[in-house]
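2024-03-11 09:14:02 INFO worker-7 job=invfold-0412 stage=load source=structure_tokens
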């Protein structure tokens, strides 16, 4: 099952895409496999690691709804979740972000060989007139 972030395609001009693992708890994995994820307000933030002099990438604003058969008394559906990438990949991504003045947004979530993967993309925010043009084009295609 592949969950696609349609809001990201509408709000951003997407560039290079990268596949990353994501750290989830057991009930979160079950909810994600059932498709109970909202990525419309999500973005990726870089933070220095608490233990080492390295950087980490975190998904902020992604909501994974509670799994109905789990104990959800202390569950926060909008907590930040760590991405699993090598330090070399993280440094390359951060350098690209600085040079091209872009940000990272999640575009899709899917399972691959039993693991949950998150597809992230370098993105540039669209202007209002670009969004209006996309709506007009979509309406014309629908009429045809």
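2024-03-11 09:14:09 INFO worker-7 stage=emit residues=144
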């Amino acid at each position: 099952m592949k969950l696609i972030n349609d809001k990201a395609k509408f709000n951003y001009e997407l560039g290079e895409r990268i596949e990353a693992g994501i750290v989830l708890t057991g009930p979160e994995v079950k909810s994600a496999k059932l498709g109970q994820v909202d990525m419309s307000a999500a973005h990726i933030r870089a933070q220095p690691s608490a233990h080492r002099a390295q950087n980490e990438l975190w998904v902020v604003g992604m909501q994974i709804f509670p799994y109905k058969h789990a104990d959800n008394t202390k569950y926060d559906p909008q907590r930040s979740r760590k991405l699993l990438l090598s330090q070399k990949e993280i440094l390359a991504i951060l350098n690209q972000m600085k040079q091209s003045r872009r940000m990272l947004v999640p575009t899709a979530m899917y399972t691959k060989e039993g693991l949950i993967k998150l597809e992230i993309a370098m993105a540039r925010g669209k202007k209002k007139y670009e969004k209006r043009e996309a709506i007009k084009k979509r309406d014309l295609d629908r009429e045809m």
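2024-03-11 09:14:09 INFO worker-7 stage=report msg="The helical segments are 6-11, 26-33, 87-100, 128-143."
2024-03-11 09:14:10 INFO worker-7 job finished
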